[in-house]
Design brief:
Bound molecules: adenosine-5'-diphosphate, 6-O-phosphono-beta-D-fructofuranose
Helix content: 25-40%
Order of helices and strands: EEEEHEHEHEHEHEHEHEHEHEEHH
Low-confidence stretches: 1-13, 15-22
């Protein structure tokens, strides 16, 4: 739902347009920033933007190290403008990240909010994926104004067309697949390359297109992943002179090594599987990741300055925007059907 704002005394009053409910939001003076879940190239650019935008707007900024695990241990440091110098170009996250079970309990969530208050943190920016936003939702419900920024290489957040790290991860995976192609072509082999994405096939789809692969296997279209058909096509393409074959397989489909054995046995063509793994989560962020992460970091601070909470920053229909986290977490996302059907057309 959209919200309208009005000032009542020194407090910000937010009305949701559907119910007209008035939510009094506190004015923030000290904000925290943390990274949570899998790291992603560009997270540092977002941290830098939060710190610099916050300080330039008169806020105190604190960095929470190791995500919610660090928050629950009070692992919190002061951030000044120099603390984020020389990081915009670096992969990973200078604040470290983690996955934390305690944050999934009501006691942990209450404790996290209490620790924020002890450190004077009245606004928090959480950079992470859907799981991290659920934690952000709980922090918000426990009285800490909280804003999420989508940071994951998987692009699996429904409310946004862009997530920090996806662009770099695709470029890294694409370059790795180019290298596999060199050796695959030299040995006249079939190569299956498995890319990350958890249960989403976005990285696989983009690599499938950018690497000119013959097949892309994604979990969203599991029913179309017909191994018999793949085998038939490899054999018929060999007959018309194709010397090597590239198959991009999504992590969510998996079983690349077993698939390689079956394809080799059925076609008689040497087949190898390569699981790219965590290499695609590291490295210097691309220009796009640095710019979009910077814009999202600054927008998160602007939302906190307006007294808003429980929002997630997004990029949709060509512009930066934001959504209520409850609403965002209910949204669903499918693969880009246009891109998917194109892979089939172009791999003939
Ligand atoms: P991502 O944020 O990339 O989706 P995870 O799903 O691993 O990564 O979530 C990161 C962290 O967010 C979890 O380790 C946990 O601390 C927190 N989290 C996940 N789900 C919830 C939840 N339902 N309630 C509160 N916190 C959660
Ligand atoms: O969410 C990012 C991601 O890299 C997924 O693509 C992958 O499934 C997962 O994290 C791997 O997590 P971990 O580094 O904990 O093994």
């Amino acid at each position: 739902y959209e919200i309208s704002e009005c000032l009542v005394g020194s407090e910000m009053c937010i009305r949701d347009r559907i119910g007209g409910n008035r939510i009094m939001a506190k004015k923030v003076t000290t904000i925290g920033v943390l990274t949570s879940g899998g790291d992603a190239p560009g997270m540092n650019a977002a941290i830098r933007a939060v710190v610099r935008a916050g300080i330039s707007s008169g806020l105190k900024v604190k960095g929470v190290r190791r995500g919610y695990a660090g928050l629950l241990e009070g692992d919190i440091i002061d951030m000044d403008t120099m603390s984020v110098t020389d990081i915009v170009q670096r992969g990973g996250t200078i604040l470290f990240t983690s996955r934390c079970k305690e944050m999934m309990t009501p006691e942990g969530q209450q404790k996290a909010a209490d620790i924020c208050r002890e450190h004077g943190i009245d606004g928090m920016v959480v950079i992470g994926g859907d799981g991290s936003f659920r934690g952000a939702q709980k922090l918000s419900a426990n009285g800490i104004n909280t804003i999420g920024i989508p940071g994951t290489i998987d692009l699996d957040i429904a409310c946004t067309e862009y997530t920090i790290g996806f662009d770099t991860a695709c470029n890294t995976a694409m370059e790795a697949i180019d290298k596999v192609r060199d050796t695959s072509a030299s040995h006249e082999r079939c190569s299956i390359i498995e890319v990350m994405g958890r249960t989403a096939g976005h990285i696989a789809l983009w690599c499938g297109i950018s690497n000119g692969s013959e097949y892309v296997l994604i979990p969203e279209r599991a029913e179309e992943n017909d191994e018999e058909e793949i085998i038939r096509k490899i054999i018929s393409k060999r007959r018309i002179g194709k010397k090597h074959h590239i198959i991009v397989n999504a992590e969510g489909v998996g079983h690349s090594h077993e698939m390689a054995k079956r394809i080799e046995a059925a076609t008689g063509i040497e087949t190898r599987a390569t699981v790219i793994g965590h290499i695609q989560r590291g490295g210097n962020p691309s220009c796009r990741d640095r710019v979009y992460a910077s814009a999202m970091g600054a927008r998160a601070v602007d939302l906190l300055l307006k007294g808003q909470t429980n929002r997630v920053v997004a990029y949709k229909n060509g512009e930066f925007t934001d959504f209520d986290i409850d609403y965002a977490l209910q949204m669903t996302k499918d693969i880009d059907e246009h891109l998917y059907s194109m892979t089939k057309r172009l791999s003939r």
